[in-house]
Amino acid sequence: MLILFSLLVIGAAVLGMPRVKGRIGEGWVKFFLSKLDPERYFILHDILLPGQNGKTTQVDHIVVSPYGIFVIETKNYKGWIFGSEKSKKWTQQIYKNKQQFQNPIHQNYGHIEAIKNVLGEQVKLPYISIIAFNSKADLKKINISSPDIYVTYDTRIKKTIESYGDKRNVIPYAKAVHDRLKSSAIAGKEAVKSHVTQIKTDQKQVKRKVHNNVCPKCDGRLLERRGKHGHFKGCSNYPKCRYTA
Cellular component per GO (predicted)? Predict the structure, then answer.
């Protein structure tokens, strides 16, 4: 009994790890995407692409179709979720506890830019950004104005993609785009380790700049300001740069 209890405790701890929870969320999205027609939708999962300045970008899921390129970011959160398209941070609330996380729309925008960098301007398919939350999340108040951005549940992701039914290109063209992305992917454990190291380094650089009152976005000076939610640091180049900390 003691061994069984210990295994249950260890299993619960492992399942609670952010990386493991993220993999579980990606697994569910992968399952729902597998229901799409394979003759029209060409799917890539967990793909590492070259970005700008020698960096890399990891994309959870890409669906290439004759109707557009769907770029999917999965979020395995629970509780109430609040956010808007242009806000820097979103809020997760569980009872009275609130915590903020990076705007996933901004995060996915970086993924789309990396894909565009690989494919070039000759690919004329539209890009559709989808943020997929699991069923444990309750999307309370999400403000989106752009027509090609969706924040939804993983159970509705297939329906969201299939709602784009206006055929704009021949199917072989979509397959060629899929194949090009696949051939451009960076594979291997060393590449993944390098990507993780890059993320940690970038985070440290941002913290260091903010600590020294330097804007990590444009290198302007960060100034102490006061808003309706209290004190914060804002870039001196506002409104050209809207970075806050």
Answer: chromosome
